[in-house]
Amino acid sequence: MANVTDGTWDSLSVKLDDNILQTLKELGFTHMTPVQAACIPLFLGNKDVAAEAVTGSGKTLAFVIPMIALLLKREEKLKKMQVGALVITPTRELALQISEVVETFLKKFSQFTQILLIGGTNPIEDVEKLKTQGANIVIATPGRLEDMFRRKSEGLDMASYVKSLDVLVLDEADRLLDMGFERSLNTILSYLPKQRRTGLFSATQTQELEKLVRAGLRNPVRIAVKEKGVADSHTQKTPSRLANFYTVCRPEDKFNNLVAFLRQHKHEKNLVFFSTCACVEYFSRALATLIKKVDVQCIHGKMKNKRNKIFANFRALKSGILVCTDVMARGIDIPDVNWVIQCDPPSNACAFVHRCGRTARIGNQGNALVFLLPMEESYVNFLSINQKCPLQEMPPINDIVDVLPKMKAMALADRVMFEKSMRAFVSHVQSYSKHECSLIFRIKDLDFASLAHGFALLCLPKMPELRGKTFPDFIKTDIDIDTIKFKDKNREKLRQKMMEERRNQLKSYTGKKGFVKPQAWSKQKNKKERRKNRAAKRKHEGSDVDEEMNELLTDTRLLKKLMKRQITEDDFEKQITGGGSQSKGQTAKASGRACEED
């Protein structure tokens, strides 16, 4: 446990390089934060560190400064192709951010080079860059870094590059495990030398994280840093200068409240969190139309190449709206964020704290607001007790206008918007059913009709959660959904072509003998009856086979008797043709089969 007050950089027990101090001065960091004051001396004293500090407390500089200082100590021995420091972080946005901080320091240390290994870029280019230029500092996401270790067939021996590694940093370590990177981390750690300095930084400590500490760190110094002015680190997990609010509204009113709030704060920088990628796609498009003269952008985990550019653009803006998923919840430092708005509470309660931490960073003021349904209000007490995150109720939002008719008009005008609305609704319901706090967020208590109205749906989608239910309160549009066109003429032309192909295919099938048009599941016979009919059919077919075998055996016996001269040829002919051993029923069946064959 560390209880460290802010101090000047000169007050450190270890002296920093003059160029490091000059860079800090240029960046405007005249004083250390508690996590920096606690971690830097330990790192430089060759100690492994496992640090827990509230989000926005300056953890990045807490490992970047000692990382560069340690590389300076062995500068003469560090070759061009040798990796001296490795930083692993869960998301590409956080990796980009760390890379920018490192680049600022490297302006005064040109002897060192760095490389960024993240998704959304061409891995072949990364391989070539490593082979030709090398890098002393690698900042990477786990998936791409693991991929580099496996490219030995392409002439890249990444394992040999990291043999001289001095410093390993796992940033947002608990998030690395939450996102399922445990196997990748174990693979990467197997290539790294045991004699190294390791720093593990996180805003929260979990049991899974404790396993990683034991596996990757050697006798680590554990640090839990609290902010100045907070009596106990267990009393509050969010920054002390964060004003945390909640508001309660019905499902059909939530988006109207959100639009009204954002219109009143359009000249500020706002992050808006939704639960799923589909919701981000749908509501960001709606907000871009409904809120004029505001730069509205969106970012989520399913984006590929666009993510890096959008992130960089939004960071540079003075005001605007970024609609996002939890991909932006951890460690991301966006300057001057005024409001963090959680339109959907996160499925994991820990993520609530991390979302709020995108504002009120490094001692600055910030605000956060979460929208809750009436049945979810007990979540406020849950957060206060479980996450040490107190909330206060916000006064009612003024000047609320019903924008849902405009959203329905947008869906009618462009099929893209219609399809996005349906996908968003389905994904939201599925996400809600998987909420960690299932006693508060109960799917069975969700008012689907009101929720669908709040999503401005033209009709209800077919999904398991709605099967067998009726919704008299939901008013479906009178317009035939199939007539809604894409604004993009090429896309609409392709849709019409596909619809025509389906119609022709259906016609070709209906013309065939014995074709039965598929019926709705509810109109078909129940499973038990169908199973019974299939069993009876198999039994009937089996009895026919048995009769045919008996007839064949009888004919074979008659033939043997003829060969042994036990019967005459006349007797044989009579019995074979039905005059003898065959019964009338057998003769009739044989005759019937013959007719069918004819």
Overview of the molecule:
The chain has 598 residues and is α/β, with parallel strands linked by helices. The chain has 4 domains: 9-225, Rossmann fold; 237-479, P-loop containing nucleotide triphosphate hydrolases (Rossmann fold), CATH 3.40.50.300; 487-513; 545-586, no CATH class. The chain is 45% helix and 11% strand. It has helices at 18-27, 34-44, 59-73, 92-106, 123-132, 142-149, 158-161, 173-178, 182-191, 207-216, 251-264, 277-290, 306-316, 349-356, 379-386, 404-413, 415-433, 448-454, 489-510, 527-563, 569-576, 584-597, and strands at residues 49-53, 85-88, 114-117, 137-140, 167-171, 197-202, 221-225, 242-248, 269-273, 296-299, 320-324, 339-342, 366-372, 392-393. The longest helix has 37 residues, at 527-563. The N and C termini lie far apart (94 Å).
Secondary structure layout plus pairing:
Blueprint: H1 18-27, H2 34-44, E1 49-53, H3 59-73, E2 85-88, H4 92-106, E3 114-117, H5 123-132, E4 137-140, H6 142-149, H7 158-161, E5 167-171, H8 173-178, H9 182-191, E6 197-202, H10 207-216, E7 221-225, E8 242-248, H11 251-264, E9 269-273, H12 277-290, E10 296-299, H13 306-316, E11 320-324, E12 339-342, H14 349-356, E13 366-372, H15 379-386, E14 392-393, H16 404-413, H17 415-433, H18 448-454, H19 489-510, H20 527-563, H21 569-576, H22 584-597
Parallel strand pairs: 1-6, 1-7, 2-4, 2-5, 3-4, 5-6, 8-13, 8-14, 9-11, 9-12, 10-11, 12-13
Helix pairs in contact: 2-3, 3-4, 6-9, 11-18, 12-17, 16-17, 20-21
Runs in which pLDDT lies below 50 for 5 or more consecutive residues are: 1-5, 229-233, 579-598
At the fold tier of CATH, the topology name of the largest domain is Rossmann fold
Into how many domains do the coordinates divide?
4
Shape: globular
Mean pLDDT: 84
* Strand proportion: 5-15%
- Determine and state the CATH class of the largest domain: Alpha Beta
CATH superfamily of the largest domain: P-loop containing nucleotide triphosphate hydrolases
Helix percent reads: 40-55%
Rounded to the nearest angstrom, the radius of gyration is 35 Å
SS-derived structural category: alpha/beta
Cα(first) to Cα(last) distance is: 94 Å
Q: How would you sum up the major sheet?
A: 7 strands, parallel
Secondary structure tally: strands? 14
Please give the CATH architecture of the largest domain.
Answer: 3-Layer(aba) Sandwich
What is the helix tally? 22
